[in-house]
Amino acid sequence: MKKIKRAAAIHDISCFGRCSLTVALPILSAAGVNCSVVPTAVLSTHTGGFDGFTYRDLTEDILPIARHWQSLRLKFDALYSGFLGSTAQVDILREFFKLFHRPETIILIDPVMGDNGKLYKTFSQDFPHEMAKLCHMADLITPNMTEAALLLNEPYHKGPHTQAYIETTIKKLAALGGKSKQVVLTGVYFCENELGAAAYDGSKVYYAMAEKISQHYPGTGDVFASVLLAALLNGANLSTGMEQAVAFVSDCIKDTHESGADPRFGVHFEHMLMSPKNI
Ligand code: PXL
Question: How many Å apart are CA 210 and CA 201, to the nearest integer?
Answer without folding.
Answer: 21
